[in-house]
Amino acid sequence: MSAPNLKIEDLRVSIEDKEIIKGLDLEINGGEIHAVMGPNGTGKSTLSAALMGHPKYEVTSGKVTFNGKDLLEMEVDERAQAGLFLAMQYPSEVSGITNADFLRSAINAKREEGEEISLMKFIRELDKKMDLLEMDNTFAHRYLNEGFSGGEKKRNEILQMMMLEPKLAILDEIDSGLDIDALKVVAKGVNDMRSPDFGCLIITHYQRLLNYITPDKVHVMMQGRIVKSGGPELAHRLEAEGYDWIKEELGIKDETVGQEA
Ligand SMILES: Nc1ncnc2c1ncn2[C@@H]1O[C@H](COP(=O)(O)OP(=O)(O)O)[C@@H](O)[C@H]1O
Ligand SMILES: [Mg+2]
Q1: Strand residues in the chain grouped as ranges (E)
Q2: Nearest CA to ligand 1 atom 7
Q3: Percentage of residues in the chain with pLDDT exceeding 90?
Q4: Is position 146 within any domain?
Q5: Does residue 21's CB lie within 6 angstroms of at least one atom of ligand 1?
Q6: DSSP structure class, residue 140
Q7: CATH number for 214
Q8: What is the residue with the minimal CA distance to atom 13 of ligand 1?
Q9: pTM for this entry
C-alpha cells in the first residue's frame, strides 16, 4: 500500500431501500489511474456519491478505508479535508458565488487558520491553471457554473480539481458532452496532476477519453459489482464489441439494474 490509498471491500449501497451496489471491491494507490466502465444504470454514480458521503446513499455493509482511516465514519467535509475529490456528472449551478470566491474558500477550508492562501498566490495559481485548461479569464468572475455550457462545467470541475490538489479524485463521466478539443483539454488537466501522491478514478461510459489518459487498470462494472478487471486493452475491446461478450462470459442474463421496477 502506497499513499494515498483507497480500499473498498464488499461495499453495499442502497437508495431508498433498493440495493444498487452489491458487493464491490476496488483498491487504488498513489500514482495509479483506474477507469471504471459500465452500462448506464449500473451504479457508477451511486458509487461516487456513496464515497463522498451523500446522505441519500445508504451504505448497508462493507468497508472503505482512505489512507488507513475508516472513510464511512467521516463527515462529508472531513472526506474533502482528507483529500478526496469528486467531479460530479451533473455539477450544480450556484448563483451569487463567483467561481473564484468559491475556489478560494474551498482551498482555505482545507487549511489551518492563519495558513490561508494569499490573494496574490491564489490569483497566480488560478491564472496558470485556467491557461492550461484554455479557459477564458472571465470564468473566474462568473457565478459558479451558472449558464455554463455542459463542456464548460466539465472543464470547471477539472479546474476545481487542479486548484484543490486532492490526493484522490473521482471523475464521474467527466467526458460526457465534450467535443474532441475539450476532451483533450480535460485529459491535459488530469495528466498534469499525475504523480505518486495522486490517485484517480475515472468513471466513463466510453473508451474515448482513455485515448488521452492511459489508465493503469480498467474495471467493468455491471449490476452493482466489478465483474472484470484488466489493462487498457480491456477498454478497447469494450469500445469495439460492447458489453455483451462479458455478459455471456459471466452468464449475466440482462443488465436490468437501471430498468427494473
Ligand atoms: N437519487 C436517486 N434516487 C433514486 N434512485 C436513484 C438515485 N440515484 C440513482 N438511482 C438509481 O440507481 C441506479 C443506478 O444509478 P447510477 O448510479 O446513476 O448509474 P450509472 O451512473 O452507472 O449510470 C439506477 O437504477 C438509478 O435510477
Ligand atoms: Mg452515472
Answers
A1: 5-15, 18-29, 33-37, 57-66, 69-70, 84-87, 168-172, 199-204, 217-222, 225-230
A2: 15
A3: 89
A4: no
A5: no
A6: G
A7: 3.40.50.300
A8: 41
A9: 0.93
